[in-house]
UniProtKB/TrEMBL annotation:
GO biological process: amino acid transport
Family that this chain belongs to: Belongs to the leucine-binding protein family.
InterPro entries, per database record: BCAA_transport, Leu-bd, Peripla_BP_I
CDD domains attached to this UniProt entry: PBP1_SBP-like
Domain Leucine-binding protein stretches: 26-363
Keywords: Amino-acid transport, Plasmid, Receptor, Signal, Transport
Signal peptide: 1-21
Protein name as annotated: Extracellular ligand-binding receptor
SUPFAM superfamilies: Periplasmic binding protein-like I (SSF53822)
Organism: Xanthobacter autotrophicus (strain ATCC BAA-1158 / Py2)
Record's keyword annotation contains Iron: no
Entry keyword Signal: yes
Biological classification of the source: Bacteria, Pseudomonadati, Pseudomonadota, Alphaproteobacteria, Hyphomicrobiales
A Pfam family the protein falls into: Peripla_BP_6
Length: 400
């Protein structure tokens, strides 16, 4: 069947119990990009995050058996939905987690709604997942386009960046990020002078950057992610755009992107994230363990989000003694979230997990103390302010 080839490479990992044991109590599928432009911020690192969550949970629940499987959706909505359907119908998967690429996340969200299964999105960004496309068993964990727009967009307008031009990835995530950021810019007193859209996984941004440069906007908003952001920033540097007085706004920038760019190119970028490995002793301890499994790489917020999400999900399974989505998600929404990476939070009625977000600036080479020491904190955005108000999303699950 077309679209199911990634399943051949799917890795089945028994994190608890022996491979010869009976069917696991719960089965979790990590569905993401494992080979493409989003593999660095999700990929195998998200599988490791899920494994670590299970291992840590079993310290207090040693009898719980959990199986983790993983597959590559290839950034294709039809492939992602086919894998999800096969997992649910034939392989007994109880919950799918991660799902970077908003188009794929929306497609898997639809399958999960149909099958009454839990999906927890850590890597996909569109705020529609907790808006018009919200579903009873869908939880959006780590970030969304609304939180990114309000964190980075409003901060830059306040700093004088009151005219914007968007360079936007031409798919669901890019469209949502441009939409949400443009709204913030206008509400903050700024103006949007134009936008240009580019295909996903573009390599040549010259024509797009010429249009952005010609707009004379003070801020060029990069409504894209991962490899697209990296290539756009590199080529903007080669064009001398920032030297000409325009500022780049990385509307979704991951730690892995900054590491790939290097501080000489990335320094001064202002960005919003929900997690940074060097925030406190707990995050540093997690990052050390993660790095030992990932050849020294530090976790991104998406990979940390998978750890956090799986932790809360397992607490719900243990508390309800059920794999059924209805009591599990009800418990997840009724009980606050607490873990060493995201601290305290909660899952709202619309499925939005709220927690603090952080405004960071990329350090200069002179400020950095090591390879992964790349951010300085400009502000903490409290959970209550970091995400769209519950009443504003248009989620049909929210009672007026």
């Amino acid at each position: 069947m077309v679209g199911l080839r990634p399943m051949v490479a799917a890795c089945a990992l028994f994190v608890a119990g022996s491979a010869a044991a009976q069917s696991p109590f719960v089965k979790i599928g990590v569905l993401n990009d494992r080979t493409g432009i989003y593999a660095d911020f999700a990929g195998q690192g998200s599988v490791v995050g899920a494994q670590m969550a299970v291992e840590d949970f079993r310290k207090t629940h040693p009898d719980m058996k959990v199986e983790i499987v993983a597959a590559d959706h290839q950034n294709k909505a039809d492939v992602g939905s086919a894998i999800a359907r096969k997992w649910y119908d034939e392989e007994g998967v109880d919950m799918i987690v991660d799902v970077p690429n908003s188009a794929v996340a929306l497609a898997v969200n639809a399958v999960s709604r149909e099958k009454n299964k839990v999906i927890i999105v850590s890597g996909g960004g569109t705020s529609d997942l907790t808006g018009p496309q919200c579903a009873p068993y869908t939880i959006h964990w780590t970030f969304d386009t609304w939180s990114l727009a309000h964190g980075t967009g409003s901060a830059l307008v306040k700093q004088g960046g009151d005219t914007w031009f968007f360079l936007t990835a031409d798919y669901a995530f890019g469209h949502a990020l441009e939409r949400d950021t443009a709204k913030v810019v206008v509400e903050s007193g700024g103006k949007v002078l134009g936008a240009v859209r580019h295909p996903m996984a573009a390599t040549d941004f010259a024509s797009f950057l010429v249009q952005a440069q010609g707009s004379k906007a003070k801020v060029i908003g990069l409504a894209n992610a991962a490899g697209d952001t990296i290539n756009a920033v590199k080529q903007a540097s080669e064009f001398g755009i920032t030297q000409g007085g325009q500022k780049l706004a990385g509307l979704l920038v991951f730690l892995s992107d900054v590491h790939s760019l290097g501080l000489k190119v990335a320094q001064g970028l202002v960005l919003t994230e929900s997690f940074y490995w060097d925030q406190n002793e707990a995050t540093r301890a997690f990052a050390k363990r993660f790095g030992e499994r990932m050849n020294g790489r530090m976790p991104t917020m998406v990979q940390a989000g998978v750890y956090s999400a799986v932790t809360h999900y397992l607490k719900a399974v243990a508390a309800t003694k059920s794999r059924d989505a209805t009591p599990v998600v009800a418990w997840m929404k009724a009980n606050p979230t607490v873990d060493p990476l995201f601290g305290k939070g909660e899952v709202r009625a619309d499925g939005r997990h709220i927690h603090d977000m952080y405004l960071f600036e990329v350090k200069s080479p002179a400020e950095s103390r090591g390879e992964w020491d790349v951010y300085k904190t400009l502000a903490t955005i409290p959970a209550a302010e970091a995400f769209r108000p519950l009443s504003d999303g248009g989620c049909p699950l929210v009672k007026s």
